[in-house]
Amino acid sequence: MRADVSKGSGGVDNLLTLADLGPEQAGVVVSIESPDPVFKRRMMSLGMVRDADVRIDRTAPLGDPRTYIVKGYPLGLRGKEARAILVRLK
């Protein structure tokens, strides 16, 4: 987790990766922390933009992949992809 990404009222304590989001938790996308511009662009085109609401919809039996609800539709992500997305708890 990168503390320098936190801006605004959320605070560092409320930041975690999308992969760390619990079943009963909802979050707001803060940033995509990946050196790959293609990955960032793909995530943004799928709705993972700053201030987008996100929550877990389903988890596979072994925990990977997970399906998240972003902007009202389901989006499946592997753990590696979800760990690159920082969220602030709601």
Features:
2 helices, 6 strands, 14% helix, alpha+beta, 90 residues, globular, six-stranded antiparallel beta sheet
What does this entry look like structurally?
By secondary structure, the chain is α+β, with helices and mostly antiparallel strands. The protein contains two helices and six strands. The chain has a six-stranded antiparallel sheet with strand order 1-6-2-3-4-5. The two termini are 17 Å apart.
Give the SSE map.
Layout: E1 15-17, E2 26-32, H1 37-45, E3 53-59, E4 66-70, E5 73-77, H2 79-82, E6 85-89
Number of helices: 2
Structural class per helix/strand content? alpha+beta
Number of strands: 6
In the sheet with the most strands, the strands line up as: 1-6-2-3-4-5
Q: Which residues form runs of ≥5 with pLDDT under 50? A: 1-10
Radius of gyration: 12 Å
Order of helices and strands: EEHEEEHE
Shape: globular
**How many strands, what sense, and barrel or not for the largest sheet?**
6 strands, antiparallel
- What percent of residues adopt helix (DSSP H or I)? 10-25%
Q: What is the rounded distance between the termini?
A: 17 Å
Mean pLDDT metric: 87
Question: Which band does the percent of strand residues land in?
Answer: 35-45%
